[in-house]
Amino acid sequence: MNADQLLATADVESVDSALKEYGDNASILVHPEMLNRMMEHFPDIFTKQGETIHYRSTHAISVHNGKDGAIEVLEVG
Q1: Over residues 39-63, mean pLDDT
Q2: 2 with 37: CB under 8 angstroms?
Q3: Distance separating alpha carbons of residues 17 and 76, to the nearest angstrom
Q4: Does the pLDDT of residue 64 top 90, yes or no?
Q5: What number is the average pLDDT over the span 39-59?
């Protein structure tokens, strides 16, 4: 496993951990590079529904312009 794969694995674990507090009523914001890493190494956990990308089929995921690795979880509904 190379460094980029390790970082992508850590990214997925971080997002999963952040979502535990919110259940299915959450939307996720991540840095564009983080999203690209996760999508490159774990494409099966992303689905496209209309114009929205979903993480694990339940959470809308989008990008922010903050620090790479920073995750924002927004409650919805």
Answers
A1: 94
A2: no
A3: 18
A4: yes
A5: 94
pTM of the predicted model, to two decimals?
0.88
Asked if residues 71 and 31 have their Cβ atoms less than 8 Å apart, the reply is no
Give the model's confidence band at 77: pLDDT under 50 very low, under 70 low, under 90 confident, else very high: low
Task: Enter the tokens of residue 76.
Answer: 């919805």
Give the domain range for residue 66: 3-75
CB distance 24 to 56 below 8 Å: no
Contact residues for 71 (Cβ-Cβ < 8 A; gap 6+) = 14, 15, 18, 28, 29, 30, 34
CA distance linking residue 6 with residue 12, whole number of Å: 10
User: What is the secondary structure of the chain as a DSSP string?
Assistant: --HHHHHHHHHHHHHHHHHTTTTTSEEEEE-HHHHHHHHHH-GGGEEEETTEEEETTTEEEEE-SS-TT-EEEEE--
